[in-house]
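Our platform keeps sequence and structure together, in a single record for each protein. Such a record has a labelled line for the sequence and another for the backbone structure tokens. Nothing more is needed to write down the fold, since each code stands for a local backbone conformation. For reference, a complete record is included directly beneath this paragraph:
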Amino acid sequence: MRIGFLFNHDQIHQVAHSLPIAMALVEIGFGGKIVVATTNAALAAEVRRIGGAHIGSTIEHVELEPSPLSRRVDALLGKVVPAGKLLIYRDNLAFFRGLDVLVVAEKTSLILKKRYGLTNLGIVHTRHGAGDRAIGFNKASACFDHVLCSGPKIRDRLVQEAGMAPEAITIVGYPKFDLVRETRQVSFLPTVEQVVLYNPHPSPHLSSWYRHGHGVFEQFLGRADQGLLFAPHVMLFQRQYVVTIDRLTVDRAGEIPPRFLRGDNIKVDLGSRASTDMSYTLSADVYLGDASSQVYEFLLRPRPCIFLNTHGHEWHGDPNFRHWTAGEVITRPEELPQALERAEELHATRYRTVQQDLFAQSFDLQDTPSSIRAANAVAAFAERRRRDNRHLKLVPA
């Protein structure tokens, strides 16, 4: 039995969501082969960093390579669309055919079944985040053979909106949290009293950045008491253009004017490891965002939240904006100073209990580590596939 874990992305943010499961498979004594595959140097380095001594010993590491033609295509189109990410499957079909089960944190890998006919390959989706965006519950989710989810909120929407069979879903908690149990808070802006983490999403039809991002920076210029930690979703500045498929939109993230980069009260991070390992969500005093699922990681320790409704969404009662019930919703950056003044009081009197309920619905955390629960679910799924395949071979044609 060969179980593969694939990391195929421009950035490293998905690694922490499923690599802990591969490591936990070793811990529970899984008897088959565990293989981790990466598609670029950054992913390979992150796998080695998190996996430590496991990588190359108890876990095989394979670095998948694109063909020369795919490299040329990606050089032409890669600044706009993830051509290399799509072509890597075609270029490495022999590797994928050699697996019994593939564990992924994204949906692109469904191409192996839909385009390349690998119907015997069992694909398990770990998801990456516990957010509320509708795209996380579209019909593509039901194309996986099994889905691991973090809590009842996710399971219920997968059943109701994606049409998944309840038996094809296992609630396992959040393996990423297992990696930060001992992480200590870091003071990234030590000279200020209150640090605001601004974490806009890349999708142009949801993000506050394109219209209001510079306005947010303006509110912190010259402030000695408040600091801005700008750590957007790592894909916001990854390409020259941001293209979204859930609602076809195209926009440019643009540049950050140099005047916003001066001063001890502003820190900008467009995609370092700290943007993905919860360093910022654990350390900030206030969360400011729009549609990023990172707000739920911030709620691991309840604190004030503020949301920018840049696009005038009718969000009340909309499950895709359920996280906006965790704090005050404003419509313009000019409202931010007043919102920050009342943030602590509103949090204490109105939003703390809401946040705790949202967190409980999003994350089913137990004494058993989430990665162990997920590993047991993957091992059980693999065993069911093995039994079913053996049965099919024994049935006469």
